[in-house]
Amino acid sequence: EDQVTQSPEALRLQEGESSSLNCSYTVSGLRGLFWYRQDPGKGPEFLFTLYSAGEEKEKERLKATLTKKESFLHITAPKPEDSATYLCAVHFWGGSQGNLIFGKGTKLSVKP
Amino acid sequence: NAGVTQTPKFQVLKTGQSMTLQCAQDMNHEYMSWYRQDPGMGLRLIHYSVGAGITDQGEVPNGYNVSRSTTEDFPLRLLSAAPSQTSVYFCASSYFGTGDSPYNSPLHFGNGTRLTVT
């Protein structure tokens, strides 16, 4: 069965305390992996797309990496404004137009 | 640039009532979709469309209808609301172009409609 699992479910950090969020997947042929940020009461906002193992993307304090089985979202020296739920979504082969599965998300809280 | 606009933001219905959730996008995206988001669950696809006049079912289509008469609009209809349909609903669109999948490009989401059915 195709699955996307995010861990941890929730993460509390102190401002400046670096950490990583994980997105592991078991799908039949990865085509791409997306990271989104979702603020309370808002829709998900696109952050990164990764396509192949070894690929990395960076944006401000965030860096996303990809292996054959999982992706990490590294947060370096986080600030309170980085508090949000981070979602990953996996695009994989299936059907006539591919499939997309979302993970349940990791809720990040950064305290000053 | 408005992006994806959803209305209303909040709605309370009684069991058995019907309503339409509106979604409009101004990016000329061919692909549009509806998701529901429930606590402890990932976003689940309800219905989607790859162009005007073309719709198809997603993972959880029961109790919902859609139509796509224009590129811009993709309304979601609840014919007879049930408490199990209490959720947050998101509309999303993406650029399809000449590719083989609407998921080659990232989805653009609206800010959601929070629906409560009592």
Question: Which helices and strands, and how do they pair?
Answer:
The complex is a heterodimer of chains A (112) and B (118).
Chain A: E1 3-7, E2 10-14, E3 19-26, E4 30-38, E5 45-50, E6 56-59, E7 62-66, E8 70-75, E9 84-92, E10 99-102, E11 106-111
Parallel strand pairs in A: 2-11
Antiparallel strand pairs in A: 1-3, 3-8, 4-5, 4-9, 6-7, 7-8, 9-10, 9-11
Chain B: E1 4-7, E2 10-13, E3 19-25, E4 31-37, E5 44-51, E6 54-57, E7 64-66, E8 76-78, E9 87-94, E10 108-109, E11 113-117
Parallel strand pairs in B: 2-11
Antiparallel strand pairs in B: 1-3, 3-8, 4-5, 4-9, 5-6, 7-8, 9-10, 9-11
Q: How is this structure best described in words?
A:
The complex is a heterodimer of chains A (112) and B (118). In chain A, the strands form two sheets. In chain A, strands 2, 4, 5, 9, 10 and 11 form a six-stranded mixed sheet that branches. Chain A has 112 residues and is mainly beta. Chain A contains no helices and eleven strands. Chain A is globular and about 45 Å long. The model of chain A has no long low-confidence stretch (mean pLDDT 95). In chain A, strand 7 and strand 8 form a beta hairpin. Chain B is globular and about 45 Å long. In chain B, 0% of the residues lie in helices and 47% in strands. With 118 residues, chain B is an all-beta fold. Chain B has strands at 4-7, 10-13, 19-25, 31-37, 44-51, 54-57, 64-66, 76-78, 87-94, 108-109, 113-117. Chain B is built from no helices and eleven strands. In chain B, the strands form two sheets. In chain B, strands 2, 4, 5, 6, 9, 10 and 11 form a seven-stranded mixed sheet that branches. Chains A and B meet through strand 4, strand 5, strand 9 and strand 10 of A and strand 5 and strand 10 of B.
